Amino acid sequence: MSDSALPPCPQCASAYAYADGAQLICPECGHEWTPGEAAADDTLEVRDAVGNLLADGDSVTVVKDLKVKGASNALKVGTRIKSIRLVDGADGHNIDCKIDGFGAMRLKSEFVKKA
Hints:
This protein is mostly beta strands. The chain has strands spanning about 20, 25, 30-35, 45, 55, 60, 80, 85, 95-100, 105, 110-115.
C-alpha cells in the first residue's frame, strides 16, 4: 500500500497513518488497526459514570437527581432503568430508554452506573 492510499486513523482522523507489516499505526494517538478492521471500529463505545463499558440491553442506575423537562418531579438517585439502547446522540444524550413514571427519554451516560 502506498502512503497516499492509506486511510486516515479511525480513532482521531489523522492523515499521518503508516503501515507496519499488515497493521496500520497512527503516530498521533497510537491507535493500531488492520485495513479491513476500520469499518468494524465504527461501533459505538459508551461508558458509564465510573468507566464501565455499556451495551444494548444493560440495566443502569441513576447516580444523580436529574430534572426532567415537562415533568413535575425529578428522576431520583437510585432509579433503576432496564433494557437500555445505545444511540449516537450528537448532544451527548447517548442512552435511549423507557422509565416507569416518566416514559421514553434519552439520558447522558455520565449520569448512570451499570447495575
